[in-house]
Amino acid sequence: MAQPRSEGLITAVDIGSSKIAALIAQPAEGGLQVLGTGQRESRGVKHGFITDMERTEHAVREAVEQAERIARTNIEEVWVSFSAGGLYSDVASVEVALGGQRIEQRDIDDLLHAGRNSIDPEGRLVLHAQPALYTLDGLNGVRQPLGLHAEKLGVDIHVVSADPSPVRNLDLCVRSAHLAVKSIVASPIATAMACLSEEERELGVALVELGAGVTNVSLFAGGLLVGLASLPIGAGEITDDIASTFGMRRAQAERLKCFHGSAQTSPRDNHEMIEVAGGPDGAEPLRISRAQLISVIRVRLEHWFAAIEQALKDLGFTGPIARRLVLTGGGAELKGIADYAQGVLGRSVRVGRPRGLIGMPEAHSGMSFATLSGLVLYAASDPIDLGPPPGPQQVVRMSPTGMVQRLIAAVRSGY
Description:
Blueprint: E1 3-4, E2 10-15, E3 19-28, E4 31-41, E5 45-46, E6 49-50, H1 53-71, E7 73-74, E8 77-82, E9 87-97, H2 105-117, E10 125-136, E11 139-142, E12 152-162, H3 164-176, E13 180-186, H4 187-195, H5 198-203, E14 205-210, E15 215-221, E16 224-231, H6 236-246, H7 250-260, E17 273-276, E18 286-289, H8 290-314, E19 324-328, H9 337-345, E20 348-351, E21 357-358, H10 370-380, H11 400-412
Parallel strand pairs: 1-7, 2-8, 4-21, 8-13, 14-19, 19-20
Antiparallel strand pairs: 2-3, 3-4, 5-6, 9-12, 10-11, 10-12, 14-15, 15-16, 17-18
Helix pairs in contact: 1-3, 4-10, 6-7, 6-8
């Protein structure tokens, strides 16, 4: 029988459009030790949004119970990812007068409290409100102002918010599975913890999560998340295109994509034939060339990456910062995707595999489990998060592009 063992346990649940996965980990010597994992097919989620509460709740419960059996423990609360569209990134800027005195911790605490009250989500639900960089008398890019003297101390608070209904549906679904929700974490923030190096986050990088139903594009610079965009496009549409084109079931199309699909072409594709078993109605087996399959995939990829490129431009991913891009998520498992993206986007591209956990099962160590791994790492990092404000106030805004450029300047200045 599973025994309660809640001390230091971290449980993450990633609710996606293709799967629902759970992971239980515990701090150990050298890092975080994975104790158990679970996975179920997601049948009640579309483009990251819950469309069938009962089926999603059932899958969540089964995935967590599977992880509990393997870990031989019972858990009560979980960290949950939010990967649906409708994520918003903004910056709240606040400044207080100090009169030239030396900055103490209470001054920073008072500043952050004032910043928290300055957030106006405009009817949206705040998921994260994290201090970015401080300013001293107008000087940008100060990481740690404690102990310095200043007439005025300011801070930029990066705010991630979402439309309230999808978040509340997610929260209700998990609680209906008899689990307390410790925190709901925006997928890009969690995924970055597992897939990006500290150097990449410092110098500037775009993280593109190629999910089954949603693509999240997020920018990091100066070690911070500085902008994000969500696209209602995913790898599931490639599967649907294959199924529609060749008249087969989605499960067959998914297998074709995974085992024979590619983002790149080769001369031998025309000579490699693929046989697909007939359906239960006694239909004849289907024979197609690998070239036909790849042609269908590349048509969808053209539309997909055109939307990604536009999102990068809209976020201000230009100039020196725009040289690195990391792909992750289930769509990043498509053969040749990094080379394809590099050719289309004209940037250095790599595939980001999750890392940082000890004892992760091979079956759950791929790119499609990056958010799940990142949730655990995020929880263990004990991040500074001001949380949602008590009520709407006025907020001073700046564009994501301006935030990116300010952070680049700050990094070059040595702060």
